Amino acid sequence: MFNKILVANRGEIAIRVFRTCRELGISTVAVYSEADKNSLHAKYADESYLIGPSPPSQSYLNIDTIINVAEKSGAEAIHPGYGFLAENPRFARECEKRGIVFIGPTSSMIELMGSKIEARKTMGRTGLPIVPGSPGAISNLDKAKDIAHDIGYPVVLKASAGGGGIGMKVAWNEGELEKHFDITQSVAKSAFGDPTIFIEKFLLKPRHIEFQVLGDYKDKVVHINERECSIQRRHQKLIEECPSPVVTPEVREEVGNKVVKAVKSIKYTNAGTVELIYSEGNFYFLEMNTRLQVEHPITEYTSGIDIVKEQINIALGGEIGFDQNDVMLIGHAIECRINAEDPLNDFSPSPGKIVKYHSPGGPGVRIDSGVRMGYTISPYYDSMISKLICWGRDRSETISRMERALDEYLISGIKTNIAFHKAVMRHKVFRKGILSTSFIEDNNIVNDIPEIIKETKKREARLIESFRDDRKVVAISTAVGTYIDMARKKKEEYEKE
Predict the structure, then answer these.
(1) What are the distances in angstroms from CA 426 to CA 26, 214, 217?
(2) Is 291 known to be catalytic?
(3) pTM for this one?
(4) 407 contacts 332 by C-beta, under 8 angstroms
(5) Which of 36, 112, 369, 493 has the most beta carbons within 10 angstroms of its beta carbon?
(6) Catalytic one among 291, 337, 366, 401?
């Protein structure tokens, strides 16, 4: 077992990894920027080190500094979390060179799957269906026009090195293709340092479904069921659930076996996610994420498997602790990403200080968070405040439980998307499980938010009243504590005399 692990990340995901380390008896090392000097993740770890100024480029993306901290602290391994350096092949390669275990796949595998073009080619050869499109990179507009003509409009232009929907442009006709081509190349170069783009058929109203996989160094690969991540805005996931309402046990077995075969054929190790597009009864390979996913808790809830614990075991050279037949599907789970953003203003970020904070609890409720009352949401990083995860015996119970938990959640001082999540949970189309990546727009979800905000103000007012009572208790406790400290000091002075 490792004696000490450094987590090259911040916030809730750093705390999430630390929790498993603590259960395993492993010492933990946190790194933090100047903006995060008072953050929970920096206080939770056994050791914490400042790695630079607030901008990520000078702190959480500083490979040399982070590895130097690992060596200085005696950490034998680094867990990258997600985001930042999690899918950076150079970071994994530097760990390999310096004899530090990278808790994730090999640098060469990250590099292979990091290129969407190479990933499409590789997975296509394993037998996984891929979305019709260009076989490789497209360097000129005429070639793009030819491919679009062959596969039919609409088409989507994508950055090969991209992610999170950055730079993606949908063209519904040749005129729009001409308009978007140079823009997509330019965005790809500025965002990812690589102008390479490719083209795919744009599938109308698809569902985004992904399979969680694990692979070890003994050539064993298993999947831990699927997740549905179709509720998105600007290609960014907002709500995920496990299992998918549209996947039957028969389909799960069929597609899961294909995914396992594909992942095994490329000799993938550690945790990963095979993302698929589902349209008109067919599944197509989209991409592979070579890291722990934000939405991994819903898989843990419905399987009973600690994915981070499995990651650490695999990184040590151990075998996955269960077989495919052992993987269960227990109930239903939904995750809502609680973000500091204004859904009534095109989901624009809302950084600032959290004045009041009360998180939900009760049966079947899990909160993964790195914030507290008085915490400041920094403009330098992702706007996610927490992940609210609810579990129930079936989808209906889980939705009801999530509604209740959202009603309990109080965050003031900044704008959040809690009302948006309530609107989705209440919507009859969502309750029927009729989902697609255009769900928000198709169902005018944002239009329901103002009324929800209005009706929840009374409940929030009652909760806020309890904070006033809490302040009185804190004030009294502080006064008593001060008096005791003074008395103790006087006694010590007397005894010295």
Answers:
(1) 43, 35, 45
(2) yes
(3) 0.90
(4) no
(5) 36
(6) 291
Long-range contacts, 447-452 (Cβ 8 Å, 24+): 448/423, 449/343, 449/344, 449/419, 449/420, 449/423, 450/344, 452/419, 452/422, 452/423, 452/426
DSSP states of 107-129: HHHHHHHHSHHHHHHHHHHHT--
Q: To which residue do tokens 């275990």 refer?
A: 101
Q: Name the one residue in this structure whose structure tokens are 């064993």.
A: 220
Domains with residue ranges and CATH for the chain? 4-103 (3.40.50.20), 132-201 (3.30.1490.20), 207-452 (3.30.470.20)
CB atoms within 10 A of CB 374: 12
Residue carrying the six token digits 């129930």: 392
Encoded amino acid at 410, one letter: L
Taking the CA atoms of 118, 121, 127 and 128 in sequence, report the sign of the dihedral they define.
positive
Task: For the chain, give the longest Cα–Cα distance.
Answer: 95
Task: Quick: pLDDT tens for 21-76.
Answer: 999 999 999 999 999 999 999 999 999 999 999 999 999 999 999 999 999 999 99
- What is the 3-state secondary structure of 267-293? CCCEEEEEEEEEECCEEEEEEEECCCC
Rounded to whole angstroms, the Cα distance separating 5 from 144 reads 47
How far apart CA 389 and CA 337 sit, in angstroms, is 9
The DSSP result for 310-369, as a single string, is HHHHHHTTPPPSS-GGG----SEEEEEEEESEEGGGTTEE--EE--EEE---STTEEEEE
Q: How far apart are CA 93 and CA 15, in angstroms?
A: 25
